[in-house]
Protein: Actin-related protein 4
Amino acid sequence: VYLSMSDESILVVDIGSSSVKAGHSGEDIPSYVFPATIAKGTNQSSESVEAFPSELAQLVTSQYVNNHSSHPIYRGIVQDWDEMENLWKHVADTVGLSQKNTDGTDNWNTAESTSVFMVESNKASVQDRSKWAEILFETYHAPSICFGNSSVLSLFASGRTSGLAVECGAGSTSTVPIFEGLPLHHAVICMDHGGQDISYNLKKLFNDRNIAIDMFSAKTVKERLSFAQGFTSKDLPHTTDTTTSFSLPDGQDVTVDSRIFSACAESLFVKDENGNGGLVNQVYESIALCDESVRRDLAGAIILSGGTSMLAGTGDRLHRDLIRKIQTEQMNVSCLVVPTTQYREKGYSTQRKFAPWIGGSLMGSFDTYHKSLKITRQEWEENPDMVLATKSV
Ligand SMILES: Nc1ncnc2c1ncn2[C@@H]1O[C@H](COP(=O)(O)OP(=O)(O)OP(=O)(O)O)[C@@H](O)[C@H]1O
Ligand SMILES: [Mg+2]
Structure:
């Protein structure tokens, strides 16, 4: 296929459960990355705290919104559109988007109006698109908008159009088989388990050892020290055979059992006692749900993306366990996980935490995008329901 490039730059935005990734199409990585958390009722960014996972269903509301800050997206779904609009205002201020002022005047002359490409989670609905269209066209006067599925874009960022996109975010983990650019919807599996659960597991493991630690510290320590059991490539600082000594973000020096840094992440791979997590089986199931004729292509390109895939040893652990599972179940395929220590891809391997955004940035640079994928204001005004339901990446 011959793809020509476009000069027109668009704003690409990926708002997740944990962080916002934003920047202009054609760039290699997002220029702006900040917490998807705002001080309640304001458009001020707040510190990078992860949402509490819903241990008790009835507490879910108070857990994703605490007294000071809120996470407008919880487990990949927008929970509160007022808070989301506040967060969007913060995004717009940060990147310099134009908008209508509350007194009806606008700053369109001083700031350029920009087309927007929204990266969508696997759980987003057409109602969510309607809401975004309203915000972006009416308040922000975008000339055009577009929606792209984050897993399809992740695969695209790795230079492929077929494969199994495994996206490990903060609020959820999804496995999406994609064949020649099209997701095989019946075999998509989304699990409400991700980085925030690993942070929470680590917090509990610290608490069990009488060390008080909040979600912010748990997240920070996790990103630095945790790893997939059996596969550490991380040089733990001041590690003896059994213990690790380090400083918490608040300055407190602690020494703990080193095993907690792999124990906290175990639920990512294998279901925990509450039935949460279990990526190995999830990947296997997604492949097994597809027709035999495509299983080889899917198992041969299992592409990891998302922040949680940065956990040291994730690819190696998934690869090892998956081979065992495939043998046990006697599925006749061989599997390739990207990246693992056996198979790395320059660029993609290190930047996979931004893969959905990078896929959007690439997509937005092609002429095809401007000719046939984006939704113009006029199309939206003429037939909003049809255009929002049918036009997307
Ligand atoms: N080195 C690391 N080791 C382990 N976890 C990490 C590492 N780096 C980032 N993370 C985790 O990745 C998560 C953020 O990933 P990502 O930005 O893909 O999520 P998101 O897009 O905000 O959420 P979602 O897509 O689930 O709504 C956080 O939980 C963060 O702690
Ligand atoms: Mg995400």
Notes: The CA atoms of residues 187 and 286 lie 5 Å apart.
